[in-house]
Fold these 4 entries.
Entry 1:
Amino acid sequence: MNLSGVQRLQALQSVSIPYLNPAGKTDHSANYATLDMTVPETVSSFLADRPWWNPAEFLLIAFAVYLSRIATEAKFDLGISLPAVKDELTGMESLFSTVVPLPVKVDFDRSFSAQYPDMLAQLDLARQHKTFGCGSFRTK
């Protein structure tokens, strides 16, 4: 089944994180911040044994699997924004979404390494799609 961009966005599934107040139930607006973090040596060593794995991709996928496990939800969509796409859309943000869904499907019975190629393929599809048109627009 091939869904249009709008249909795909309407079908998104969020993840419910334990102990997190839903955005609509708080008295303050969302705040966003960045934090530079050093990758732990154990993670660096793990990646050194897998030079074909991209560290940024690995960290994103590991974060998605972490969310899945703490929420005990095997399937959800994670919104990602790709810097190159944001640069391409400067001035057109009202027409195109700079956030695209990354479908996360985790099999709790399989190891991370066994699932990594499947999740990487989903990330590649999200990169290829780049954006969704807002309203009635559809892009590919």
Entry 2:
Amino acid sequence: MKRQRCRRVVIIFLTVMALAGGTAVAMPSRGFSANENRYLAVWPTLDAASLWSGLFQKGMAAYVSDHFVLRDGLTAAAGAIQRAQGRRDINGAYLGADGWLLAAITSQDIDTELYGRSLALLDRLAADSGVPMVVMPVPDAGIVMKDELPPLAPMYDAAALYATARQVLTHAAIVDPTDALRQASGQRYYRTDHHWTSLGAYVGYRCLAPALGLTARPADGFGFHMVTDAFRGSLYSKVLNPDAPYDDISIAAQPAGLQVTADGKPMDGLYDMTALQGKDKYSVFLGGNHGRLDIDTGHGGPTLLVIKDSFANCLVPLLTGDYAHIIMIDLRYYEGRIGSLVTEQHVDAIAVVYQLSNLASDTSLMKLALG
């Protein structure tokens, strides 16, 4: 009797899984998951080469996984079970104190060899161009806010990464904002997202400005104001805890006379207010990530090139008062040659603003080897 009951359970489970997988194949595919803030796997190409190499099978597995029926519901249910079991690390997010979610990034996630090569390429760009360069890697929340981590939760060795940068970057200045972020009061990172807040970005700006030869402006001169109090970010999407707190997003006031273009298309300004109606509300800053974004401020001054990831998106608006032209390049989406861009655009200074752990894992910086 017990064996028959087990057999029935197995049959029901396999039937449900087969129906869910079949439904995932039959239903129209979704291109983008707003909840996970990423593009989903596309239907793989079927031909003799892909079938023989196994690429089709791998692509099909990824497609079914991404489009699995009730994927979000199952993720939420799994997270609830793990929380009930006392787990403090769920799907790459630490469950910290006071409702905090912090990215669980350990030494195993850091590619030290890639990091060294990326730094060497940045240093070569600075040497070859002769343009002053400042590199500011931004530490993750778990590095700055250690008290919010679960007990004994491991994180990568940020101090070692900064030491490597100081050793490799012989033609560029290195800025480490860790101590300033630790000493600052107020919410410097979002509780449910891996990015720093506008306050955190302002602390970073105060560290970056002197290295660029600028005088940092006081915070009250930027007109920071809240635009939403209903933000749940990338770390919430990993856990899907219905009791997770909501975050506020504040932005600086936009100066008059700006002209902004993203990949050659004009934007309304520094902020995309329509993003506040969707899941990825952090994209209010500059409309998210673009291969190339140009800001013409309408006043005189030098030209700044910013090589960046999304951490720079809420910091760059604070630099518009000091430059006539700011060019932002995200190497994940840009296919041009940076060396040529520096020459053609008469760049006066280069700032590299990256999440520290991303700088130590992002392969797109290898594009700098092209010149």
Entry 3:
Amino acid sequence: MSYASAIAHEPAPAAVALVIEDDADIREALCEVLAASGYAVLAASGGAEALRLLDAGERPGLILMDLMMPGMDGWTLLGALRAHGLAADVPIVVTSAAGVEALESARREGASATLAKPFDVSRMLRLLDRLRPRALH
């Protein structure tokens, strides 16, 4: 599937996706693809910023987060998101180039799904659509 056809993909009503990624270029690219695919997008450069967004009242329906981040790493953030009253039941997709073992561990720690970097954009969009809260289908 081409990039153009991947971003032409439209989820039913705007699901809010929170992208948590410390690499600015990757974060920007993910946000652009998700926005072009019909998602309302929130972005955070790390765990502390993501938790501030939740504490300020933001309500994502999906979270796409990196595992290896400076400051609050993805492991700590994953636990905090699962413990946070506003994100306890939100589907969380963990992305990482750390390898299969790290991704399997993330699943055991509460990730709804994982994607190994680099990943195919169309595969990511299909995965997010499957995980999108049922009320939005």
Entry 4:
Amino acid sequence: MPGRKSPARTDLARADVDCAARLKILADPTRLRVVELLMGGPRRVAELQKPLAIDQSLLSHHLAVLRDAGLVESQRAGKGVVYRLAPDVELPASRAAIDLGCCQIAFAAPVKVTPGKATPGRLSKGPR
């Protein structure tokens, strides 16, 4: 029928929207920095809060956005919560990139945890 998309094209279009939505979420410097910090392994909220130097309520908002997008997972640990990269996002071999399914984001510099600094890592444009 004219005007109807095939199921394969619809799935591809949906994947493009999902990818664009994830990239939009990571366009926020604080969320990008959170992902960069979690590339070093699971962390409690307080361990994320120190290097980001932001209020706990704002950090919780960013973590909720990342969790809703499927980029991070949370697990109760006693009175606190531990966050980690979602298994389908993490690239365990490199620990320097994440896989969004549609593309990979690589960080040029290793994760540096400096209290009071909230600057995101530099993104690489791919192999040189």
